[in-house]
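Sequence in, structure out. Go.
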Amino acid sequence: MSLFFVRPAMVLLLALAGFGSHAAENVIQISKENLDNLGIKLGKLEPVTQFPVLSAPAKVMVPPTQEYIVSASQAGLIDKMNVAVGDKVEKGQVLVELNSPELLTLQREYLKADSLRRIHLVNYNRDKKLLEEGVIPERRWLETSSEYHSVVSEADEQRQLLEIAGMTAAEIDHLVKTRRLAGRLRARSPITGIVLERLAVAGTRIDILAPLYRIANLDELWLEIAIPQERIGGIKIGDRVMVENSEVSAKITLLGQSVNPENQTILARAVVTKDTASLRAGQRLNTRIIQPSDKATFKIPNTAIAQNEGEAFIFIRTQQGFLVTPVTVAGKQGDESIISGKLTGNEEIAVQGAVALKANWLGLGSDE
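Output:
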């Protein structure tokens, strides 16, 4: 049991102020004129509709559907890297230019397949007309049709290989029109986003599928929050999350089903869709989990609360003095606390001077 001491000067001041106490009734009597002498200031309860239930560390993550590795679709020599880390890129923007002998091979194979398709198209149209005129048997028509559709499939396959290699439809059409091979390969951004990492250097030869850039769309971010396992029961999907020292808020969308064996925490994921510009992927920060209040809840200064034997009390102003009232502290935010109890919200309380009031309530210099 702790001891609560009041300085001799305070003892004298309390006596001169005419303090009276009825501890059994939890009432402290004090006249209005003596409030200022004792440093007691009054204030109102501030209603709140939500309160913090837990503070926990978090890490900023990019959703997997929003992050991409841009890689080389063919082996080649990097000629130019067009963007740097931190740059914003648009979907379809050319990020890397390289010279690729393998691309020349793909173009040549496609032109061969396209030429063969054209030849068989002539035969196809000719035999179709002859069949309609009854000049050729149906068996010959079926053979011609089968050969034509086979070469069409081959040409389509070769065209798709060029598209996978990074050529656009317009570039492939230009190739067909000019019949000129070009080994210039361009790697484009698949999304609009930000360059997070550069993974190659101009002037180096790279293999097929070598990574070039890591980019991400940061319009949506995740907060991966580490919740102590003993507190997970009080957290719910849909709870609001506030990032400390910022206006960023998020909403919990997932509660993990496994415990991290290293620190005995459970993952909670919160989604941020607004004000993401103030966050950085990989950043570690502190968060507060906020829940709506299902009963009358109020915010008061910490100085208005007196502790005694593990319980919290506030001092409500009455005509005779103050009524000592027990409250429940639901959470704290800096210099303020969130409380609930048998309160209407219209009470006037002592927001300063609780030390003097507590001393008189318990008996000056006595054990608590």
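Check: Helices lie at 8-16, 101-133, 138-165, 169-178, 354-362. The mean pLDDT is 87.
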